Amino acid sequence: MVLAAGEGSRLRPLTARLPKALCPVGNVPLLDRALTRLAGLGLAGSDRVAVNACYLSEQVVDHVGARAHLSVEPGDPLGTAGGLGNLRDWIAGRGVLVGNADAYLADPQAPPGPDIAALLDGWDGRSVRLLGRPADDPAAPGTFSGHCFVGFSLLPWRLVRDLPPSFGDLVRAVWRPAEAAGALTVVPYRGTFYDTGTPADYLAANLHAAGGGSLVDPTATVTGRVARAVVGAGAVVHGEVLRAVVWPGGTVGADERLTDAVRAGGGLTVPAAGR
């Protein structure tokens, strides 16, 4: 299941008109990156993959189409646990690999899918597994066995079947109880991870996707200078773009210098310096 129901409030105003799951990283919507990673594990199609939607749900539904089973949550998002509870009939006794649509992962040693395959290898079907990276402070709140969660977890049906279709989060409903019972394992991820939740991390993920250079969509018009940047489809850049992202349809005028920022359509600019 790919969690794609959230509003992405920390990315506002970028997410005022576009759900966070569809925000592009390296000119690829985050949700497509998640679906590609699952496909790399052999998980594809509406019988095996589900996507939930709530905020600006019609955009998510149109974007996913027939690629996955769609679970549209009425009212406010149900959270990470409630979203699973809402899909109990579809899950129907199976274990669940749950991924956050806003998680950017990249491992230079393995393509998407095989890069997280260790999370599934040898699973007993009863324990809880989390993908993690060593935390700077292993004792910090929110860590698991000294690791920070990096976007994917593996849950057994015995714990999913009791989740109600009401608001709740997996941390309190599943992960911490499993940890207390000695039934939670953290599987280390060796690659790069950003949760893309803030403008700074969103920019950092884009720059990482650009590989230290620039990514410019072939349909963009660029007459200015572009360095360490990502320029989307149909964008127009006549000025200078440095360590920045220009969304599809965005424009940078000849007299502008866009640095450490994200430019969307209509001239919307969101500063993204610092972390």
TrEMBL record:
Domain of life from the UniProt record: Bacteria
Residue ranges the record marks as coiled coil: none
MF annotations from Gene Ontology: nucleotidyltransferase activity
Keyword terms of this UniProt record: Nucleotidyltransferase, Transferase
Chain ranges of the Nucleotidyl transferase domain: 1-103
InterPro entries in the cross-refs: GlmU-like, NTP_transferase_dom, Nucleotide-diphossugar_trans
Membrane-spanning ranges: none
Name of the protein described by the UniProt record: Nucleotidyl transferase
Organism: Micromonospora sicca
